[in-house]
Amino acid sequence: MNESIFLLDKRVVFDSTKMTLSHGNEIIRISEAETHLLLAFWHGLYKKEDIIHLVWENRGGCVSESSYYKLINQMRNDFSSIGLQPSDIVTRPRVGVSLSVAIEPIKKITSLKVSDENVKGPSTREKIFYKIKRHSVFVVLTGAILLALLYGVFTIYKAPVRNSPDSFFTYLGEYNDYAIYKTKEDKVTLSEVVFAFNSLKIKIYRQNGRHLYYIREPNMNIFLQCL
Protein backbone atom coordinates (compact mmCIF):
# COMPACT_ATOMS: atom_id res chain seq x y z
CA MET A 1 0.00 0.00 0.00
CA ASN A 2 1.20 3.53 -0.76
CA GLU A 3 -0.52 5.33 2.11
CA SER A 4 1.72 5.94 5.10
CA ILE A 5 0.18 8.92 6.93
CA PHE A 6 -3.38 8.85 8.24
CA LEU A 7 -5.80 10.92 10.28
CA LEU A 8 -7.55 9.31 13.22
CA ASP A 9 -10.88 10.89 14.12
CA LYS A 10 -9.91 13.81 11.80
CA ARG A 11 -7.45 15.21 14.36
CA VAL A 12 -4.69 12.77 15.32
CA VAL A 13 -1.95 12.08 12.77
CA PHE A 14 -0.77 8.49 12.48
CA ASP A 15 2.56 8.11 10.65
CA SER A 16 3.08 4.42 9.93
CA THR A 17 6.62 5.01 8.63
CA LYS A 18 7.84 6.89 11.70
CA MET A 19 5.52 4.83 13.95
CA THR A 20 4.17 7.89 15.74
CA LEU A 21 0.87 9.43 16.82
CA SER A 22 0.75 13.22 16.98
CA HIS A 23 -1.84 15.80 17.96
CA GLY A 24 -0.75 19.44 17.93
CA ASN A 25 2.60 19.62 19.73
CA GLU A 26 2.12 16.22 21.38
CA ILE A 27 3.92 13.28 19.74
CA ILE A 28 4.18 9.72 21.06
CA ARG A 29 6.04 6.79 19.58
CA ILE A 30 4.21 3.48 19.20
CA SER A 31 5.51 -0.05 18.74
CA GLU A 32 5.73 -1.93 15.46
CA ALA A 33 2.88 -4.21 16.56
CA GLU A 34 0.68 -1.20 17.34
CA THR A 35 1.52 0.28 13.94
CA HIS A 36 0.39 -2.90 12.19
CA LEU A 37 -2.74 -3.05 14.33
CA LEU A 38 -3.77 0.42 13.12
CA LEU A 39 -2.96 -0.61 9.54
CA ALA A 40 -5.16 -3.67 10.04
CA PHE A 41 -8.00 -1.35 11.04
CA TRP A 42 -7.31 0.67 7.88
CA HIS A 43 -7.58 -2.53 5.83
CA GLY A 44 -10.97 -3.16 7.42
CA LEU A 45 -9.83 -6.18 9.42
CA TYR A 46 -11.58 -6.88 12.71
CA LYS A 47 -11.49 -10.65 13.23
CA LYS A 48 -8.94 -11.79 15.80
CA GLU A 49 -7.41 -14.41 13.50
CA ASP A 50 -6.91 -11.90 10.65
CA ILE A 51 -5.36 -9.31 12.95
CA ILE A 52 -3.00 -11.86 14.51
CA HIS A 53 -1.95 -13.01 11.05
CA LEU A 54 -1.21 -9.44 9.86
CA VAL A 55 0.49 -8.23 13.03
CA TRP A 56 2.61 -11.29 13.88
CA GLU A 57 2.31 -14.43 11.74
CA ASN A 58 2.65 -12.58 8.43
CA ARG A 59 6.16 -11.58 9.50
CA GLY A 60 7.19 -15.04 10.64
CA GLY A 61 6.41 -14.57 14.32
CA CYS A 62 4.18 -16.38 16.75
CA VAL A 63 1.77 -14.99 19.29
CA SER A 64 -0.26 -16.06 22.27
CA GLU A 65 -3.70 -14.95 23.41
CA SER A 66 -2.12 -12.80 26.12
CA SER A 67 0.05 -10.93 23.57
CA TYR A 68 -3.06 -10.13 21.53
CA TYR A 69 -4.96 -8.63 24.48
CA LYS A 70 -1.83 -6.90 25.77
CA LEU A 71 -1.49 -5.16 22.39
CA ILE A 72 -5.09 -3.94 22.53
CA ASN A 73 -4.64 -2.53 26.04
CA GLN A 74 -1.38 -0.88 25.03
CA MET A 75 -3.09 0.73 22.04
CA ARG A 76 -5.89 2.04 24.26
CA ASN A 77 -3.32 3.60 26.61
CA ASP A 78 -1.68 5.36 23.67
CA PHE A 79 -5.07 6.65 22.51
CA SER A 80 -5.69 8.09 25.95
CA SER A 81 -2.25 9.78 25.95
CA ILE A 82 -2.77 11.46 22.57
CA GLY A 83 -6.31 12.74 23.14
CA LEU A 84 -8.42 9.90 21.75
CA GLN A 85 -10.80 7.77 23.78
CA PRO A 86 -9.69 4.25 24.84
CA SER A 87 -13.26 3.18 24.06
CA ASP A 88 -12.60 4.06 20.40
CA ILE A 89 -11.07 0.58 20.20
CA VAL A 90 -14.09 -1.69 20.53
CA THR A 91 -13.77 -5.34 21.55
CA ARG A 92 -16.17 -7.69 19.78
CA PRO A 93 -16.75 -10.72 22.04
CA ARG A 94 -15.72 -14.00 20.39
CA VAL A 95 -15.07 -12.11 17.12
CA GLY A 96 -12.23 -9.65 17.41
CA VAL A 97 -11.66 -5.91 17.74
CA SER A 98 -12.46 -2.84 15.64
CA LEU A 99 -11.88 0.90 15.49
CA SER A 100 -14.96 3.09 15.98
CA VAL A 101 -13.43 6.36 14.71
CA ALA A 102 -12.49 7.22 11.14
CA ILE A 103 -9.01 6.45 9.84
CA GLU A 104 -8.27 8.24 6.57
CA PRO A 105 -5.10 8.59 4.51
CA ILE A 106 -4.00 12.21 4.37
CA LYS A 107 -3.13 11.82 0.69
CA LYS A 108 -6.80 11.30 -0.17
CA ILE A 109 -7.87 14.31 1.85
CA THR A 110 -5.27 16.43 0.05
CA SER A 111 -6.51 15.14 -3.31
CA LEU A 112 -10.04 16.17 -2.46
CA LYS A 113 -8.87 19.68 -1.60
CA VAL A 114 -6.88 19.93 -4.83
CA SER A 115 -9.88 18.73 -6.84
CA ASP A 116 -12.07 21.30 -5.14
CA GLU A 117 -9.57 24.03 -6.03
CA ASN A 118 -9.55 22.83 -9.64
CA VAL A 119 -13.33 23.09 -9.77
CA LYS A 120 -13.16 26.63 -8.47
CA GLY A 121 -10.17 27.51 -10.65
CA PRO A 122 -11.96 28.91 -13.74
CA SER A 123 -14.24 31.03 -11.57
CA THR A 124 -11.22 32.42 -9.73
CA ARG A 125 -9.48 33.19 -13.02
CA GLU A 126 -12.58 34.99 -14.25
CA LYS A 127 -12.66 37.10 -11.09
CA ILE A 128 -8.98 37.99 -11.51
CA PHE A 129 -9.56 38.90 -15.17
CA TYR A 130 -12.54 41.05 -14.20
CA LYS A 131 -10.48 42.88 -11.56
CA ILE A 132 -7.65 43.50 -14.04
CA LYS A 133 -10.11 44.74 -16.66
CA ARG A 134 -11.84 47.03 -14.18
CA HIS A 135 -8.48 48.37 -12.99
CA SER A 136 -7.44 49.05 -16.61
CA VAL A 137 -10.63 51.02 -17.24
CA PHE A 138 -9.99 53.06 -14.09
CA VAL A 139 -6.42 53.82 -15.21
CA VAL A 140 -7.61 54.91 -18.68
CA LEU A 141 -10.31 57.18 -17.22
CA THR A 142 -7.87 58.69 -14.73
CA GLY A 143 -5.37 59.34 -17.51
CA ALA A 144 -8.04 60.99 -19.65
CA ILE A 145 -9.09 63.28 -16.80
CA LEU A 146 -5.47 64.27 -16.12
CA LEU A 147 -4.91 65.03 -19.79
CA ALA A 148 -8.04 67.18 -19.86
CA LEU A 149 -6.87 69.12 -16.79
CA LEU A 150 -3.41 69.64 -18.27
CA TYR A 151 -4.94 70.83 -21.52
CA GLY A 152 -7.14 73.28 -19.63
CA VAL A 153 -4.18 74.70 -17.71
CA PHE A 154 -2.16 74.95 -20.92
CA THR A 155 -5.04 76.74 -22.65
CA ILE A 156 -5.38 79.26 -19.82
CA TYR A 157 -1.70 80.16 -19.78
CA LYS A 158 -1.23 80.08 -23.56
CA ALA A 159 -4.49 81.82 -24.52
CA PRO A 160 -4.29 85.00 -26.58
CA VAL A 161 -4.28 88.36 -24.84
CA ARG A 162 -7.96 88.88 -25.61
CA ASN A 163 -8.76 86.14 -23.05
CA SER A 164 -6.69 87.77 -20.28
CA PRO A 165 -8.40 89.27 -17.20
CA ASP A 166 -7.90 92.76 -18.67
CA SER A 167 -10.31 91.83 -21.47
CA PHE A 168 -13.13 91.23 -18.96
CA PHE A 169 -12.25 93.45 -15.98
CA THR A 170 -11.52 97.10 -15.50
CA TYR A 171 -9.73 98.81 -12.64
CA LEU A 172 -12.15 100.35 -10.12
CA GLY A 173 -9.98 101.65 -7.29
CA GLU A 174 -8.07 100.91 -4.08
CA TYR A 175 -9.34 99.81 -0.69
CA ASN A 176 -7.35 98.72 2.34
CA ASP A 177 -4.26 98.18 0.15
CA TYR A 178 -6.26 96.01 -2.30
CA ALA A 179 -6.52 96.83 -6.00
CA ILE A 180 -10.15 96.23 -6.93
CA TYR A 181 -11.46 95.36 -10.40
CA LYS A 182 -14.97 94.90 -11.77
CA THR A 183 -16.39 93.48 -14.97
CA LYS A 184 -16.56 96.03 -17.77
CA GLU A 185 -20.31 95.65 -18.21
CA ASP A 186 -21.08 96.16 -14.51
CA LYS A 187 -21.97 99.72 -13.39
CA VAL A 188 -21.16 98.96 -9.76
CA THR A 189 -19.36 101.62 -7.73
CA LEU A 190 -16.31 101.24 -5.50
CA SER A 191 -18.36 101.85 -2.35
CA GLU A 192 -20.78 99.04 -3.32
CA VAL A 193 -17.88 96.65 -3.87
CA VAL A 194 -16.33 97.67 -0.52
CA PHE A 195 -19.67 97.03 1.19
CA ALA A 196 -19.89 93.58 -0.45
CA PHE A 197 -16.28 92.88 0.57
CA ASN A 198 -16.95 93.76 4.21
CA SER A 199 -20.05 91.55 4.16
CA LEU A 200 -18.07 88.40 3.30
CA LYS A 201 -18.45 85.63 5.86
CA ILE A 202 -15.15 84.04 4.81
CA LYS A 203 -12.14 86.22 5.57
CA ILE A 204 -9.71 87.14 2.79
CA TYR A 205 -6.06 87.52 3.75
CA ARG A 206 -3.67 90.00 2.19
CA GLN A 207 -0.81 87.51 1.81
CA ASN A 208 -2.90 85.55 -0.70
CA GLY A 209 -2.84 88.46 -3.14
CA ARG A 210 -3.63 92.19 -3.40
CA HIS A 211 -5.74 92.08 -6.59
CA LEU A 212 -9.46 91.50 -6.08
CA TYR A 213 -11.70 90.83 -9.09
CA TYR A 214 -15.36 91.41 -8.31
CA ILE A 215 -18.19 89.62 -10.13
CA ARG A 216 -21.76 90.49 -9.21
CA GLU A 217 -24.38 87.79 -9.66
CA PRO A 218 -28.03 87.71 -8.52
CA ASN A 219 -28.01 87.22 -4.75
CA MET A 220 -24.28 86.50 -4.85
CA ASN A 221 -21.00 88.44 -4.62
CA ILE A 222 -17.91 86.72 -6.05
CA PHE A 223 -14.34 87.85 -5.36
CA LEU A 224 -11.36 86.37 -7.19
CA GLN A 225 -8.09 87.03 -5.35
CA CYS A 226 -4.82 87.07 -7.28
CA LEU A 227 -1.22 87.92 -6.43
TrEMBL record:
Keywords assigned: Membrane, Transmembrane, Transmembrane helix
InterPro entries on file: Sig_transdc_resp-reg_C-effctor (IPR016032), WH-like_DNA-bd_sf (IPR036388)
Keyword Iron-sulfur: no
GO molecular function, one term: DNA binding
Membrane-spanning residues: 137-157
Biological processes, Gene Ontology terms: regulation of DNA-templated transcription
Coiled-coil annotated residue ranges, if any: none
Name listed for the protein in its UniProt record: Response regulator
Lineage start: Bacteria, Pseudomonadati, Pseudomonadota, Gammaproteobacteria, Enterobacterales
